[in-house]
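All the exercises in this workshop are built on plain-text protein records. A learned vocabulary of local backbone shapes supplies the integers on the structure line. Once this layout is familiar, the rest of the handout is easier to follow. An example says more than a description, so a record of this kind follows:
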Amino acid sequence: MSAHEELMELAGKQIALGEVDGAPAPDPVNEPMIRHWLDAMGDANPVYLADGVAPPAMAQVWTMQGLGPRQPSPVDEIMVALNDAGYTGVVATNCEHTYHRYLRVGERVTATTRFAELKGPKTTALGEGYFATWNVTWYSGDEAVAEMLFRVLKFRPKPKKKPYPLKPAINQDTAFFWEGVKQGELRIQRCGDCGELRHPPGPLCPSCRSANRDHVVVSGEGTVYSFVVHHHPPVPGRETPFVVAVVELQEGVRIVGNIVDCPVEDVGIGMELRVTYVSIDDELTLPLWAPREP
């Protein structure tokens, strides 16, 4: 049986249990706890203490378990199984409350938990995971007074890339360029007065000396103007040999970058290139250059 089949079989067993009773609230609804809640929430409504009722959103407070021994619930075994299967990340996605009436000071509530659903595996931005949903109902005696639907995503965290040791210098002159790289754009600085393109970016136009500047998004295509093959010394985070090229863009400016996806011996002057964006680590993306398809 696969891990997925085992998870779904366990979920089916937990769903079949239906509502599972929890321990009664350790304390009845009381004014001191209501007062603390109102202070913490910044709620100045005097009606609660005046009428001897609790804010509805406090339902979970009365039965919340402390740091001591916990009473197991139908959710616990599912969470352990997901952790064991590698889905160790967790993020809450839904929390929906339904209130049937106010709880009154002196009432003691009991919560029941019903595991409702396990869906997955799903591909998310955080990683592959399962959505687990359960329902909690609070009772005063036999009367349901509040309900909560709670859903979490249990996901397998994506492996982190080793931090790249050579970080580019980013300042107010170059920030626009690196922000563009993150968005898959090759941005080249342009003089706001004479319109001349320039790279690397700088504070003043070399032609008219204007400090007025903006940028344009260029095509990302160019040719090899010149290049070197780096063999030595070793470069942290890189395997030698590799090619460092001066690329002449179609728009006329030149930019330095590595050539990838091409044997070193095949690189030559005039080779047509296109920009490609490569995630180097969890924070850095670099614009690199690859041969352009015919």
